[in-house]
Amino acid sequence: MNNDLSVKIIPLGGVGEIGKNITAIEAGEEIIVVDCGVAFPDEEMYGVDLIIPDITYLIQNKDKVKGFFITHAHEDHIGSIPYILKQLNVPIYGTRLALAIIENKLREHNLIETSNLISVNPGENVDLENISIEFIQSTHSIAESCCLAIKTPLGVIFHTGDFKIDLTPIDEKVIDINRISSIGKEGVILLMADSTNVERSGYTMSEKSIGNTFRRIFRSAKGRIIVATFASNIHRMQQIIDASIENNRRVSFSGRSMENISKSAKELGYLHIPDDMLVEIDDIKNYSNENITIITTGSQGEPMAALARIAFGNHRKIKIERDDLFIISASPIPGNDKLISKVINQLFKKGADVIYEDLEEVHVSGHAYREELKLMHTLIKPKYFMPVHGEYRHLKHHKDLAISLGMESKDIFILEVGNVLEIKQESAKICGKVTSGTVLVDGLGVGDVGSLVLRDRKHLAQDGLVNIVVTIEKESYSIIAGPDIITRGFVYVKESEELIKELKQIATEELQNC
Amino acid sequence: MNNDLSVKIIPLGGVGEIGKNITAIEAGEEIIVVDCGVAFPDEEMYGVDLIIPDITYLIQNKDKVKGFFITHAHEDHIGSIPYILKQLNVPIYGTRLALAIIENKLREHNLIETSNLISVNPGENVDLENISIEFIQSTHSIAESCCLAIKTPLGVIFHTGDFKIDLTPIDEKVIDINRISSIGKEGVILLMADSTNVERSGYTMSEKSIGNTFRRIFRSAKGRIIVATFASNIHRMQQIIDASIENNRRVSFSGRSMENISKSAKELGYLHIPDDMLVEIDDIKNYSNENITIITTGSQGEPMAALARIAFGNHRKIKIERDDLFIISASPIPGNDKLISKVINQLFKKGADVIYEDLEEVHVSGHAYREELKLMHTLIKPKYFMPVHGEYRHLKHHKDLAISLGMESKDIFILEVGNVLEIKQESAKICGKVTSGTVLVDGLGVGDVGSLVLRDRKHLAQDGLVNIVVTIEKESYSIIAGPDIITRGFVYVKESEELIKELKQIATEELQNC
């Protein structure tokens, strides 16, 4: 083997942060990119809708980039694709379901004609010149999630994607432990693994475990059942559908993403529901309430999603009725607790009943807990390890976990966004940083809002603004009109007349002093 | 007894919301007020510092108001006192510790001279003309918290305050179960009880239970230990001090409220620490790191508090050193998760170790879980019940809990802020609403910011502002100068030259059309 061979791993997002997962892997003249996700703004990012990665490095090397390889179809792994494709149009490889969900997105952005989506089944390989990528069946809170075994001239890089070890998944597509074990036995130079739940001890419960809860709740419900969950969680949908059919309830989908994804998933055979058990939302009135289940978006309390609109009486088609039972089948993503609580309070106030995670087991996590992570490490036994998919605290604890399993600290690399991990025949090290960071999306604008604009918005948000308008004669500098004081978001003008008067006074004096 | 007798209970805050606890109880010509707390703004309340209750009703009836009766010294029960006293100067009754903490506040507001603070020991009564108020020893996450037995001409109203049933409290002042039982036996017309943790099953752990965790952690720590907790949690402080002394560590306090409260608590005998074990923060450098514990504010990740300043290198006196161990001995209040996580990430990045609730049992709740609530209900056996201290979901679940214990729905009252619960000899009902609501504090301004101002701030925050300045000749209406476009928080001007040019164009055309 050539001693000058090197492979570079460059996370352009997803390390030291939750969201915006995207990693470039470079071998010789080839770059492949794993995932292409978005992140969501925090409260300080006034007016920002989405955060996408800065892909300057990929554009600078665009002739090398052979494609995006998508582990699964969650927003934090695919959400930036429409924005990135406009800058860099390369093929996108993924499973059928992932591509169907991406297609919906591309259609909304009018990009479907120009894009090149290539379907790969779990178990199959994509062979490029230097690199070959194997998609391996995994389990997660979305169907057809995959681990990737990325075969480079220096050896195999194993990327877990987002995973849990679910041995009784709803679709019976068990995570391919045997294949993972073989790959581990053959030797892996680098493991990149999901760190989300490294702070939780034990095992996640199987998705199947909550089916029993649903069945018990559904049996005793008297009115409609309205379940809010993530639109992409097709296995959750299936369990809700199964419990509904058992209890002679027809199922309706509400919310754009829920309608789109359920339709695609049904067409592709991932979601099983007899046509006569499926009801359009306009037709639910033709059935009595105890024969209806509605599956809806808005499980994070998002003010514009279906659940919040139902709660606050703004939904055009669904009004709260007597004996309605709402189930919020999701965990609050950090930062969303208050939004969800507002919705729950409102539903209770309107007389509905509401079941959520604090009260019943209506949700399980899709990310591996500590014991599952240990199992993955033990199967793969990598030479080097790079924790991914987590804030710094998670990466740090994942490093500690690897050390507790026998790895040495020097072989574990916590990267920042843009850092380059260079692996050579006998060594690995972090060498430098490429251009990288965040690009903010505000409405139709991509990248025209940044820290200075946000700083101004913050000032405006906290203090409002005071405009002083005055007309001055050009030659004599005497005041012709004004000063007039116009304020927005400052104080109630009526109740602060004194203050405004004083402002005028000061403005006049200052002008005269000029 | 007079059949026209009536007692009114009017919550002016604290029901259907977390925070701002304040309730008026009116019998004949007397009104007493239980607590006087603040609430904290949510993210949508741009620029707002605090939320205080609208006490119009009390001011309209100011001759009746005999005083504020403080159950305990948490901000959500005492934080509005300085603002309210300026409008309504009546006596404040509370335990010595509560008054000491209130005194610190009043001193900052220059109100200490004019205020009338009256100390009451647990077990003592305050006798007014119609009403008599008994303070009863309770347990909570602050020392000397009390339940109140409010004896009215119609019978006893029992207000739990914030409580848990801790039978092994640090100060050995066990909640006075026997007295509560006697009061219950004598008959209670109305129970008002803390609903915070009604969604949690089982019992809270005793405060004492985390002492062992501290001791174990302290024994193996090599450098300084820096513990962040609530300044008012004197029992927590005591446990940290005890573990420190056992391990030959001197203790220093950091953060204004931590310094103030620890000083008051020590002087009053609530906090026990030998003088030679106490070190000023300026003097910690005289000891080796393994002999120092620092107790600090900022456990909620507040950007201006000591912990965040240490983490981000802005603390004047404390810099992170090798082997520093940070302990965050608190739960995130909903909405604060992201702030805390930022601080934790930063501490890890700087090489410190951090222990928090997800990893170790370094915090217990101060609010009763379901089994404790059931015990309280069973001891009191009230005629009527009004759940307090919670969002609507908590009040609703507390109502359900009371029903599960045998009460009838018609005897349970969920009130909104300002609602009047009128109790008569043979009946109770909600009758009407008094003026009430929220008053926003923004800097020095109290009440000069409201929904219209906030709406404008929200628009400014999300979109920024565009100012078009143009000078027009008075008679001919011709444009003399401009239009000039000035933006703040809109877009980067440099990178959006085209857009600005277009704006000018449109403005000119519109002006010419006028």
UniProtKB/TrEMBL annotation, chains A, B:
Its EC number is 3.1.-.-. Keywords: Calcium, Cytoplasm, Endonuclease, Exonuclease, Hydrolase, Metal-binding, Nuclease, RNA-binding, rRNA processing, Zinc. GO terms for molecular function: 5'-3' RNA exonuclease activity; RNA binding; RNA endonuclease activity; zinc ion binding. Residues 19-214 form the Metallo-beta-lactamase domain. Ca(2+) binds at G47, D49, D442. It holds the Pfam family RMMBL. Gene3D superfamilies: 3.10.20.580, Metallo-hydrolase/oxidoreductase (3.40.50.10710), Ribonuclease Z/Hydroxyacylglutathione hydrolase-like (3.60.15.10). It is found in: Cytoplasm. Zn(2+) binds at H72, H74, D76, H77, H140, D162, H389. The active site is at D194 (proton donor), H367 (proton acceptor). SUPFAM superfamilies: Metallo-hydrolase/oxidoreductase (SSF56281). InterPro entries: Metallo-B-lactamas (IPR001279), RibonucZ/Hydroxyglut_hydro (IPR036866), RMMBL (IPR011108), RNase_J (IPR004613), RNase_J_2 (IPR042173), RNase_J_b_CASP (IPR055132), RNase_J_bac (IPR030854), RNase_J_C (IPR041636). It is an enzyme of class 3 (hydrolase). GO terms for cellular component: cytoplasm. Substrate binds at A231, S232, N233, H363, V364, S365, G366, H367. The keyword Heme does not apply. Belongs to the metallo-beta-lactamase superfamily. RNA-metabolizing metallo-beta-lactamase-like family. Bacterial RNase J subfamily. HAMAP family: RNase_J_bact. PANTHER family: RIBONUCLEASE J (PTHR43694:SF1). This is Ribonuclease J. It comes from Clostridium sartagoforme AAU1. The lineage of its organism: Bacteria, Bacillati, Bacillota, Clostridia, Eubacteriales.
